[in-house]
Specification:
The protein is an alpha/beta fold. It contains 15 helices and 13 strands. Bound molecules: guanosine-5'-diphosphate. The site of guanosine-5'-diphosphate (GDP) has 17 residues, from α8.
Length: 460
Amino acid sequence: MATYLRRVDDTIVALATPQGVGAIAVIRLSGKEAIELANRVFFGKNLERQASHTIHFGTIRDGDRIIDEVLVSLFVAPHSFTKENVVEISTHGSSYIVNQVLRLLVRQGARPAEPGEFTQRAFLNGQFDLAQAEAVADLIHSDSEAAHQAAMHQMRGGFSGEIAELRAQLIHFASMIELELDFTEEDVEFASREDLRLLVEKLLRVVERLISSFDLGNVIKNGVPTVIAGKPNAGKSTLLNALLNEEKAIVSDIAGTTRDSIEDEITLGGVVFRFIDTAGLRETSDTIEAMGVSRTREKMKSASLILYLFDLGDTDLVAINQDLHQLENIGVPFIKVANKLDKGNPQFINQLKEAHPDTLFISAGKKENLEELKEKILEQVNLDKFRTGNTVVTNIRHVDSLTRTRDSLLDVLGGLDQEVSNDFLAMDIRRSLHFLGEITGEITTDDLLDNIFSKFCIGK
Ligand code: GDP
């Protein structure tokens, strides 16, 4: 198991709900003395005599002073998230109350938790492996159906299961070959080289598949990178705003919800689309003609989808054809969108329909045909691939370890080809095992763990 050692016999405390005013706030304690500490400030009944998974009403007091009326939930070790004693105190959601209760508990001997420390304890106590712990963070941050599904799948062990099985098979071979090292005189072969080759090839296929799933994983986690291209004044900002406003309107319909960072993100059909701010998009309005030399072209290449917008008031079919030709060369799927339908010349519209029957006619300003546009966008990203339930790698750290695993497995194959000595073979296999183990946390270092868990918020 982990080589990581941290003092885990103290009791930690933190606010588990967001900072700020809410109807209720939840303060979480975890550690051997969690229940005892809570009991010293809780008045109502003796918490130390209550069963696990029960909730109790009472008051929190600092001496004679009542700080709040609260509900306390008890989770007795090992039946809790951290596998330690856990107490959750639900107070009224005032930051004053929260601070008072936190101080009181710290005065009783609890230690303020560090970022991610609850999840870290869960990992250290064997609740789940590292990949699953990371999935907890992804789950907390998931803001679309696809991201939620991927994180959920990983948290429930999908990814880890696959890796663990591969590792187990490889460990078997490693030990067989190491055993042969002890019998060098006798010239025995415990591990069939042919079987080893078959296994390594199988592993390589799985590892390759996982590595290549990262393209999709990245899109699921960070959104489909999308560019809106077109000449200045084609209506690019108007379109983006129209799409965004619609979403904002839906969001603000749900009373009390606020989201601050949806500026350039739109969720359609459970998938996040992230609009890339190309120079051409808003600021300098690079034209497609200038694309050949501009950074815009690079941005477009890195996109998964381009919306090419042109102005129906601007009836230059030759220029449009040139632009479209340029776009074809980029090789990213694009949708032809003719804007300003409200002031389009019918003759030109017919001409366009003939030349480019797949053009979608909209009015961003008048919000016409935006639904059709959304449908078309969704068609392009092939939603099924988001819903496969297959293992998808969403974490850059995992891709990194998988890539190193692949390289060492290739070394194993190379070694088999060249019939290298057993100790070299065993070394390459051990190296592959090491990198696979990094993913699930069988192989860890303090730095790695600190790095992972410090990205969590306090209280998680
Ligand atoms: P951008 O330079 O491509 O971002 O274009 P803008 O979004 O700034 O739009 C340029 C102008 O076209 C603005 O005055 C918009 O109000 C106008 N516009 C955008 N969409 C439409 C539309 O559907 N119909 C009409 N008539 N005007 C539009």
